From TrEMBL:
Name of the molecule in the record: Alpha/Beta hydrolase protein
AB hydrolase-1 domain: residues covered: 294-410
PANTHER family, alphabetized: AB HYDROLASE SUPERFAMILY PROTEIN YCLE, MONOACYLGLYCEROL LIPASE
GO CC terms of this entry: membrane
Superkingdom of origin: Eukaryota
Signal peptide start-end: none
Annotated keywords: Hydrolase
SUPFAM superfamilies registered for this protein in UniProt: alpha/beta-Hydrolases (SSF53474), Dimeric alpha+beta barrel (SSF54909)
Organism (species): Diplogelasinospora grovesii
């Protein structure tokens, strides 16, 4: 059985809120399918522009149509969430299975033929013309004849139309129970195209070849025209629809890995799969719900979670409502799945993890990346390895190179964690925090101690190895992304201030400015979030 397509038309009933329909589809239905890359290559959503119904179309390229008969896929439909069952019960849904016969693409010099490889800005607004030819049942050679006409005459004419991107020819799949056989031609065009222009009219004109094929083999023709408005990734990201829903529309998945908070302060909590070794990366997305809002991402330190940024994020959301905010738990926070082989982390691997998170959320470029400690080293490594994905960065309380003494200390901390991680947590926070924090902000110190104590021991054991043996001194000289360095004045009793002051000039051609946060230690954004904001405001 060939590769093919799952082709789904939908018409919501008048009583169903379109925001509810889109939020469910974009944040639950689509991502669960895109998390099966062995089955689904993509998921594209279209809205009709021809005034006809059904108004909505979803098209999924399938790697091998036989996968749609396996429990991996069928269980998705059998085990629907209550919300999905209630929503889809208010939608007229028709599902079609098509096998691919052939595909024909333009040869662009700088754009891929597959629409999902475009950025959202490039993809949204592209045009799909879907033409269904119902074939006469008494002519077994009809399919071959129709496909031959497309290949030999029609597609060469379509290629002349400005903005033509590709044409795919499909047939009714053998998975379909229907006896009616169809040829479906899907024609993709750029936003700016020559539809209805002279080249298009010439392609639609009668020819002797066309008239012969259609007269002998085609019983009926249906033509629909759509515009693409959403491209799925394997992670939910639609804050826009979510922000317009009432609090009662909050959702939590059966495994509790995904949840949404609707309303003006919309939040999506979910996870990304697809890392090199199968480790899941939890994330939290919030802030400006506009799909194109500039995004700031945060990379936490070893032994902490994305919640370490909580108090600073409150300030950021108030001061910069224009920003979308992405936080994620770096590998090592949680248990390593039984299906994954434990792998010692490296800064390269940590940078790759972030690239995977951005890809899953279809974020082509960050406005800024902010990281601290191991997250600060990861931030610099990401800027060096993926400069095209980042406009600027802020790296805090980190070193550009490891030392033998540090490696020995990490091994001792692993041994202590395996014995009593609670004891490690107390010693760690006392080492991290400024004496002022320990004495005058005891609630903050206890909050961080509890956070560290909740870290998975095995995760810590393998993730801390990223800090054992690395040196970015030479490569940071080639950095082309502007950066700011920040450090708490009491970090390492002032030793890290001296260290960062010593390597700040190595960044790129002009070096980096170093901001020192007073009355703070290793995590200034957690200890003194207001002072940290003052340090980063202008650069951010």
């Amino acid at each position: 059985m060939a590769p093919g397509m799952l082709y789904v038309t939908m018409q919501p009933e008048p009583g169903l809120s379109l925001d509810q329909f889109h939020e469910w589809y974009n944040n639950e239905h689509g991502p669960t399918r895109l998390r099966l890359p062995q089955i689904f290559l993509n998921g594209l959503r279209y809205r009709a522009t021809d005034g006809l119904q059904p108004e909505f179309l979803a098209a999924y390229d399938v790697t091998h149509m036989s996968h749609l008969e396996t429990p991996t896929y069928t269980d998705l439909r059998a085990n629907r969430s209550q919300r999905e069952a209630e929503t889809i019960g208010q939608v007229d849904v028709k599902r079609y299975f098509f096998d691919e016969i052939s595909a024909h693409s333009a040869s662009p010099t700088n754009r891929p033929a597959r629409i999902e490889h475009y950025t959202d800005d490039e993809a949204e607004g592209t045009v799909l013309v879907s033409v269904e030819l119902s074939l006469k049942s008494d002519t077994p050679e009809a399919e071959e004849a129709a496909e031959k006409w497309y290949t030999e005459e029609h597609i060469p004419m379509l290629r002349k139309i400005p903005g033509w991107l590709r044409t795919r020819i499909l047939r009714t799949s053998s998975l379909e129970e229907s006896s009616e056989k169809k040829i479906v031609a899907l024609h993709d065009y750029a936003k700016d195209n020559g539809l209805e222009g002279p080249e298009h009219k010439a392609a639609m004109a009668s020819t002797s070849y066309r008239d012969e094929v259609w007269g002998k083999y085609v019983a009926n023709k249906t033509r629909r025209q759509y515009k693409l408005f959403y491209v799925f990734g394997p992670a939910p990201r639609d804050l826009s629809s979510l922000s317009r829903l009432p609090a009662s529309a909050a959702f939590t998945s059966s495994d509790s890995k995904t949840s949404t908070t609707p309303g003006s302060s919309a939040v999506i909590r979910s996870f990304v799969t697809g890392t090199q070794d199968g480790v899941e990366i939890p994330y939290r997305l919030e802030g400006n719900p506009a799909p194109g809002a500039p995004t700031v991402a945060f990379c936490n330190s070893l032994l902490t979670s994305l919640e370490m940024w909580d108090e600073f994020i409150k300030i950021l959301k108030a001061k910069r409502p224009d920003l979308r905010i992405l936080r994620y738990d770096t590998r090592g926070r949680h248990a390593i799945p039984s299906s994954a082989e434990p792998v010692p982390a490296t800064l390269d691997l940590l940078a790759d993890d972030l690239a995977e998170v951005l890809a899953a959320l279809r974020i082509p470029k960050l406005h800024a990346l902010i990281g601290v400690s191991m997250g600060g080293a990861t931030t610099l490594k990401f800027a060096l390895k993926y400069p095209q994905k980042l406009s600027k960065f802020i790296a805090c309380d980190f070193n550009v190179a490891s030392s033998e003494a540090n490696t020995k200390a990490w091994k001792e901390r692993i041994a202590l964690a395996e014995e009593d991680i609670g004891k490690l947590a107390g010693l760690t926070v006392e080492r991290w925090f400024h004496p002022h924090t320990m004495t005058d902000k005891k609630a903050v110190a206890q909050w961080m101690t509890d956070m560290v104590a909740a870290n998975n021991v095995q995760g810590f054991k393998f993730s801390c190895q990223a800090l054992w043996d690395y040196n970015m001194r030479d490569e940071m000289k080639e950095c082309c992304v502007p950066g700011l360095f920040v450090v708490g004045e009491g970090d390492g009793k002032g030793a890290l201030v001296k260290a960062m002051d010593g390597f700040k000039h190595l960044l790129g051609k002009d070096g980096a400015e170093l901001k020192v946060v007073p009355m703070a230690g290793h995590l200034p954004m957690s200890e003194s979030p207001e002072a940290f904001w003052e340090a980063v405001d202008a650069f951010l």
